[in-house]
Amino acid sequence: MNILVCIKQVPATSKVEVDPDTGLLKRDGADSKMNPYDLYALETAIRLRDKEGGKVTVLSMGPLQAESIIREAFAMGADAGALLSDRRFGGADVLATAYAISQGIKHLGEFDLILCGKQTTDGDTAQVGPEISEYLEIPSVADVTKINEVTKENMTVEMELPEALEVVKVDFPCLLTVEKDIYQPRLPSYVLKKAAKGREIPIYTLDDMDDQDEDHYGLTGSPTQVKKIFPPKTNTDHFTFEGNDEKQADQLCDKLAELKFI
Amino acid sequence: LINEKKVKPLDKTEWQGVAVYVDQVDGKIHPVTYELIGKAQELAGKINQPVYVLLMGYNVDEAAKELQHYGVDKIFVYDDEKLARFSIEPYTAVFERFIKQNKPCSILVGATTVGRQLAPRVAARMRTGLTADTTILDMDAETTDLSQIRPAFGGNIMAHIVTPNNRPQMATVRYKVMDPAPRQDEVSGEIVHKKINAKKLVSHAEILDIVPKEPEQSIESADVLIVAGRGIKKQSELAQLEALAYLLGGQVACTRPIVEQGWMDVKTQVGLSGRTVRPKLIICVGVSGAIQFVAGMDHADTIVAINSDPKAPIFKNAHYCLTGDLYEILPRLIQDIKAQRGHKNELQGVH
Ligand SMILES: Cc1cc2nc3c(=O)[nH]c(=O)nc-3n(C[C@H](O)[C@H](O)[C@H](O)COP(=O)(O)OP(=O)(O)OC[C@H]3O[C@@H](n4cnc5c(N)ncnc54)[C@H](O)[C@@H]3O)c2cc1C
Ligand SMILES: Cc1cc2nc3c(=O)[nH]c(=O)nc-3n(C[C@H](O)[C@H](O)[C@H](O)COP(=O)(O)OP(=O)(O)OC[C@H]3O[C@@H](n4cnc5c(N)ncnc54)[C@H](O)[C@@H]3O)c2cc1C
């Protein structure tokens, strides 16, 4: 089974702040890590490979320093990895990100299965996976909680719906986004980490892509524009209800209705 | 495909109408749909455009008729056996056809499990922008550009997003963020039945089974928590908290002394040596608010405290403070909520 896992580098903390003067994100001490949700996708891939045979490749799009998460993936057991890095990919929204990644996947070869995390902890849209599958014209299933069966032609998985689990048999090639907790991600292995130390990681740019029209990538290829970033209104609400017990209960009920809990 | 040569500049006047995707399973309409219709009416009103809803499924006549009570202009219905269950490829094909035939300027989709995978697939097919989990939506009357505000970084920042050069502009919205359109007695809106070529409804994913889920038990996943503290004097009195939790669609959790007394399971303990929770609403009943407890819940969106001691530390953390006897407050609150519910059901019709 030839499996590709999409992994993204994200800031190590989600406690970001907005600089009130510039309106930009303060990314103090550019500490970053692999998107935690992608660990579940990677773990899923490694287990499938160990059981069914085949190969796990990881792919990330980002600045050169994103190489470090590819090494981290090697230390967990990935067989191969590549980085898409080009200034012309920068500033991409979901559409342009998914397009660049789908072009990168086509460049890497053919895969039976593509795995993505459920979402990231920074952009936090959960849209990249489904959009990649559209560009690759393959079926997709999101929020997979369990893999029941794998055959040569297809796999049977469980998808979470609000009030039910849908059991879906999906043909290869396909794309899945996996839920947190599908499997517990393993810790990186020291031995694998050492083995991968000097290993070269291929870096691909726009010049390696099938479609080399710059307008389809990065900021220019992005239909959405972030106009402004600002801190959320902190909840400084602090009401002490007045009156006897019953009056206070009445006020609370009105408040709960106003907040749509009733 | 995107490889086409430079497209001609966008003529925004060709794109008219605010459309809502109807989230339904077996003809049962998800209530987020009515909230989106409410919002769509407001947005469309600002630019004098119609409101459309897109309903796809199998045997959805009743659902279509129900939608006529919400004051939309047109209800586009795609009724086909192949659409009986959500499956990404056929649903995307129908959505694409709807967009190409009707050219809505904006599309709102509920951020449900289905909406969150369908909307991006459709956005990619239309090569347009999609804003995830918007909490505030407005319409620029001049440009017909949607102004979309959404949280990112786990709610730590907000982003204001626009899609100025593409149509349709798409957004997903979570349940319980917008106000629902009220249900009216009179019927309005034209039901437009549409057909789609069976060849377009091919799917490479087959739905084998639908298994109803057991109700979610972990307190970490609950949107609403009612916490029992030592102010509760007898185990049997937990029943009142259960009743309140039931009415608010939540679960009962507790402080450590309640676990130590053997009244509740350790899995329901909130705090440093228990679970960390981040519900939308937490109501602490007879809880003093010790630091070890607060550490496990102070990120809840809305914190309510009911305590007889005005000096109880929990009041420092609470957004809404009720100083009084829980044995007086709880029964009254339960009675009030039941009354509210009844009133709302009368207005909305029961679904
Ligand atoms: C505050 C803020 C708000 C934003 N809001 C929007 C918005 O509403 N709409 C929009 O179109 N864009 C938005 N963006 C831009 C968007 O976050 C980025 O385009 C990003 O590249 C992809 O989105 P994501 O982080 O949400 O990924 P998600 O869709 O949450 O990621 C899902 C999975 O896709 C894979 N993946 C995602 N990115 C990569 C990558 N670079 N390399 C490899 N695999 C990857 C991973 O497996 C990941 O688990 C926003 C950005 C910011 C900073
Ligand atoms: C290392 C360590 C770890 C700990 N971890 C946890 C933890 O994970 N979770 C946890 O909960 N605790 C934990 N504790 C214990 C914690 O310090 C407190 O003792 C505990 O949280 C108190 O629980 P309580 O608020 O229910 O009880 P109390 O502190 O006894 O408070 C009861 C409250 O009920 C009010 N009350 C009484 N009667 C009524 C009435 N009729 N109407 C309204 N209000 C009334 C009282 O005014 C009082 O404020 C830990 C302690 C240590 C040392």
Gyration radius of chain B (Cα, Å) is 24 Å
Task: Find the CATH superfamily of chain A.
Answer: HUPs
Number of strands of chain B: 18
Strand fraction of chain A = 25-35%
In the CATH hierarchy, the third-tier topology of the largest domain in chain B is known as: Rossmann fold
Domain count of chain B: the total is 2
Organism (chain A): Agrilactobacillus yilanensis
InterPro entries (chain A): ETF_a/b_N, ETF_b, ETF_beta_N, Rossmann-like_a/b/a_fold
Pfam families (chain A): ETF (PF01012)
Protein name (chain A): Electron transfer flavoprotein small subunit
Task: Explain what you see.
The complex is a heterodimer of chains A (262) and B (351). Chain A is an alpha/beta fold and 262 residues long. Chain A has one domain (2-216): HUPs (Rossmann fold). Chain A has 6 helices and 15 strands. Chain A has a 9-stranded mixed sheet with strand order 11-10-9-12-8-1-6-7-13, sandwiched between helices. In chain A, β10 and β11 form a beta hairpin. In chain A, α3 packs across α4. Chain A starts with a strand and ends with a helix. With 351 residues, chain B is of the alpha/beta class. Chain B folds into 2 domains: 12-201, HUPs (Rossmann fold); 219-348, TPP-binding domain (Rossmann fold, 3-Layer(aba) Sandwich), CATH 3.40.50. Chains A and B meet through β3, α3, α4, β9 and β10 of A and α3, α4, β7, β10 and β13 of B. Bound molecules: flavin-adenine dinucleotide (FAD) (2 copies). One flavin-adenine dinucleotide sits between chains A (6-8, 35, 37-38, 41, 60-62, 92-94, 97, 101, 116-117, 119-120, 122-129, 224, 226, 229) and B (129-132, 150, 152, 157, 159, 161).
